[in-house]
Amino acid sequence: MPMAPIHPHLIRELRTEIASAISDFKSYDVPGVCKRLGLADGDSEEAFRSKFKYASNRLAVVPADDLLGVAKLLLQEVSSYRLSEQVAKIQELGRPALTEVTRRRLLSGLRIPMKPATYSDAKPATHSEFIPATIPA
């Protein structure tokens, strides 16, 4: 299934998140990380000045179609919530959104006690209301 076109702002955000994740490495490791990701070489002195700029300069020449692959490759080495969320957002493009009917069906199956209004005399939900009385086998 071909992926929907990616909006330029999502591409910019993806470049930023990749550079940010790379900049979390030690300065002396950044050139090696970039090389493993298939990005252009550079000297370590440049990485010591600014890890983020070092990575950003190399990501700027990567075509938009190849950025997602770079991000996935990096996510195999690091744990970055923001980068993984950006990748998921792009991968979900063109897929049908969760409909109102599906949301209602999902929520109806959950036992989530409602929080009473602040002006209400009702007591707040207790811990035991979240745990079923019997655990299914």
Question: What does this protein look like?
Answer:
The chain is 51% helix and 0% strand. It has 7 helices and no strands. The mean pLDDT is 81. With 137 residues, it is mostly helical.
Summary tags:
137 residues, mainly alpha, elongated
Q: TL;DR?
A:
It contains seven helices and no strands.
Fold blueprint:
Layout: H1 8-23, H2 30-36, H3 44-49, H4 51-59, H5 64-75, H6 81-91, H7 100-108
Largest sheet: none
- Structure annotation, total helices: 7
Mean residue pLDDT: 81
- Unreliable spans: none
Query: What level of helicity do the residues show?
Result: 40-55%
- Based on CA atoms alone, the radius of gyration comes out at 22 Å
Strand content: under 5%
Series of H and E elements: HHHHHHH
Overall geometry: elongated
N-to-C terminal Cα separation, in Å?
40 Å
User: Tally of extended strands?
Assistant: 0
Helix-strand makeup class: mainly alpha
